User: Which sequence fits this backbone?
């Protein structure tokens, strides 16, 4: 045995509930879990390394099921804007100055932030995602779902009114599809990487392209991950293209694109009936609580989708907007936001938020046979959380385990002290084993300064509300 | 000069905006701020201690304007319950077993958690608050607003239906008033303590008692801090006592109790007109974003009250419910919750949340002449935040200071590394100077185990939803 964690509360997520084991122990052999049970039953003295899990929870690493980490250098750059300004006037002027290398630095920053707060799998949604995989995820030994963005819309859309239809460029779609296909070859058999197609959204892809992608996904036995029903701008394109009463869900259904092969991000612009249909078809959803709340003022329908019996998961989207890649914070946000939007303090209780970021995420991403719960034979993606902290005190086991709500409502993310991915210990006792985080912070600060200063003129000219916030001394 | 902080971003809160000073410095002489300006203008080499504030924000310590810290040992004990069950079936069975000493341990825990996350002033609302002041706040050198709870309702209300009027016991009210008056004598002239009357709520006090308290508050030049318009249960008492169309605000107005002497906590059960009237009368409000969201499923009207021009502040209430005493988390919650409830991503931007916890809190508590902003002559209640953290990277100053939104949206609270209260440095470089936090955690865990086990039978008998959550393996 390579690693044994003993004397701990195991939160296994086996079965319908949390599958808690008191005085539990976990054994790891190479890249897999070899023992899940009580400490008594494990001959842990044989292990190369023994981690004492006293006053700790040991659980599956968290799964960030939808994220664009490449823009992390723009954190805090587009905030508190009207939704209509966020992308073009807020983020746009800075985006233009981000180099390919800046995306890599951004991904490094986000992945380290995620690791520190317990994330072990990132569903990375990006153009040229292969670079991020090779230059960040693999060197850092981190599990990634590589999702290559595919779209066939001309990037030059600034001159269009929201009611103007986007132009499609078939060659662009084909090039992206080729890039995506290459990724499957490139990382075939890699234990840390799985791949998906990432058709950006129905307003960004033609139906024939989507059908083509779906067929290839069927051939490869993989999924499609798509932004679905994101709101006003998408709706305008859909009604203009397909007719007044059409919606994204209607078009996807008509073309046989709603299935358990589809991972649908956001879906806040859907009716109750549409969500029921999606659940019936086996579509998985990913909600990004902070991102959609802060960019759109909308709470993603995670609670509703779970209530309907659907598979749901949580993502952080990107740093500008929500401000972080911290899945503990996202669990708290998911629960609290769902409570207020339903005016119901019992809505989305902590165990549901915990499921969304573990076994739920694994199911949505099609990885539940290998990660998401603690079971013998699954990959060893494990985190421990130190409960012996002021904000997590007291720890009580009877008559209830108060540390379960506290894990969602009181934890900041900094209490994660050991992180193991695929059997490799990435963080031990709060310290990265092989990563110099300060040098990455330094590089990020250096590059961000240049990007923001280069963009300053464009940013002022774009004239978002942030410009006036700044002029009034608030930013 | 005793302490100089140099090379820092000062967030002064002087003027209407944030009053940022780049490459700033702050001087402290005994218990007061002696210099606020640029580093160039300060002869800091004369200082006994120099703190290098490079890559740090230096700002006023945060003000927690409404909290009951004494029940912190019950953290995680009453969560995800219907509002009607929370107090009696959820918290009640455990409350009975809390000794006076347990309240002191709870307060210690909460105050240390608050200090670690940047809170330097606590508006402590409790029965027998004097004990908490003497045994926790003064030994720890922490600023406190001591608010003695006053009510004259018999504690034995379990047998009453919500529609039954509470019995008043004048003797109980008089005893509480005497206790409150004693506090003013006891802490007179103490630089860390100011005092207020804490009439619990209109359903818990007769109008004559309230008028008596108000007169004494006028005589002493102090404020009244009261729970106001908290919802269904209060409303039932008010309409039953005063008539069908009556509300808390109408009764307070009729009796001349709405004034700038009143601090009103919560106020979510008020109409738009009532809030306008409160603002006109100069009433200050305190909202508790996590607490009210998680216990009632309601977002406190902080944004609305500020929009009306009222003085507003934020509090953490108590650990069970919101789960923490972390004011950085509360700033994030305040902004995000206000955005979704107004479907407006521009609502309650970060500078407003920052004002709510600094100068806004000071105004509501009547302490704005001495704390809440960085000005020469004010008390030295100062915190520094280390921005050189993964989750706060990058740091950019031009064309906007991205660290201002990041301070609210990306900070967990753990980035606070220096805490100074009244000129005393309580936390240096992330470490408490004179407090052994692990021994307090240990004591808290020991006591909580006993309390929860003692209460187990009552708790099961009370039969809240948490009992079934537990039976189904979720807790």
Assistant:
């Amino acid at each position: 045995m390579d690693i044994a964690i003993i004397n701990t509360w195991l939160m296994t997520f086996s079965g319908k509930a949390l599958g808690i084991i008191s005085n539990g122990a976990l054994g790891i052999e190479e890249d897999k879990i070899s023992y899940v049970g009580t400490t008594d039953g494990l001959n842990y003295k044989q292990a190369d390394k023994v981690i004492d899990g006293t006053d700790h929870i040991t659980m599956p690493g968290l799964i960030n099921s939808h994220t664009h980490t490449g823009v992390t250098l723009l954190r805090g750059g587009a905030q508190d804007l009207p939704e209509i300004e966020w992308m073009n006037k807020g983020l746009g002027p800075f985006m233009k100055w981000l180099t390919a290398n800046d995306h890599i630095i951004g991904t490094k920053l986000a992945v380290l932030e995620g690791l520190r707060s317990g994330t072990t799998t990132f569903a990375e949604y990006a153009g040229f995602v292969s670079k991020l995989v090779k230059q960040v995820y693999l060197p850092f030994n981190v599990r990634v779902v590589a999702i290559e963005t595919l779209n066939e819309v001309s990037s030059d859309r600034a001159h269009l009114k929201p009611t103007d239809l986007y132009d499609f460029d078939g060659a662009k779609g084909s090039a992206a599809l080729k890039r995506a296909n290459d990724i499957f070859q490139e990382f075939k058999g890699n234990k840390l990487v799985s791949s998906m197609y990432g058709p950006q959204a129905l307003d960004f892809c033609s139906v024939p392209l989507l059908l083509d992608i779906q067929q290839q996904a069927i051939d490869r036995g993989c999924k499609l991950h798509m932004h679905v029903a994101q709101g006003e701008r998408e709706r305008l394109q859909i009604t203009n293209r397909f007719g007044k009463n059409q919606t994204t869900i209607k078009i996807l259904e008509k073309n046989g694109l709603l299935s358990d092969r589809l991972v649908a991000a956001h879906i806040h612009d859907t009716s109750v009936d549409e969500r029921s249909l999606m659940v019936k078809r086996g579509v998985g959803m990913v909600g990004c609580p902070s991102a959609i709340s802060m960019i759109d003022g909308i709470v993603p329908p995670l609670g509703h989708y779970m209530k309907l019996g659907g598979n749901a998961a949580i993502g952080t989207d990107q740093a500008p907007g929500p401000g972080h890649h911290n899945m503990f914070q996202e669990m708290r946000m998911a629960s609290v936001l769902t409570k207020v939007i339903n005016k119901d303090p019992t809505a989305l209780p902590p165990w549901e938020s915990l499921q969304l970021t573990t076994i739920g995420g694994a199911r949505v991403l099609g990885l539940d046979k290998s990660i998401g719960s603690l079971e013998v034979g699954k990959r060893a993606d494990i985190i421990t959380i130190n409960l012996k902290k002021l904000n997590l005190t007291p720890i009580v086991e009877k008559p209830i385990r108060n540390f379960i709500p506290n894990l969602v409502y009181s934890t900041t993310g900094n209490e994660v002290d050991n992180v193991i991915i695929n059997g490799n210990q990435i963080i031990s006792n709060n310290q990265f084993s092989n990563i110099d985080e300060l040098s990455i912070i330094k590089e990020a600060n250096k590059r961000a300064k240049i990007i923001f200063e280069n963009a300053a003129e464009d940013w002022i000219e774009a004239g978002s509300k942030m410009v006036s916030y700044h002029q009034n001394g608030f930013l």
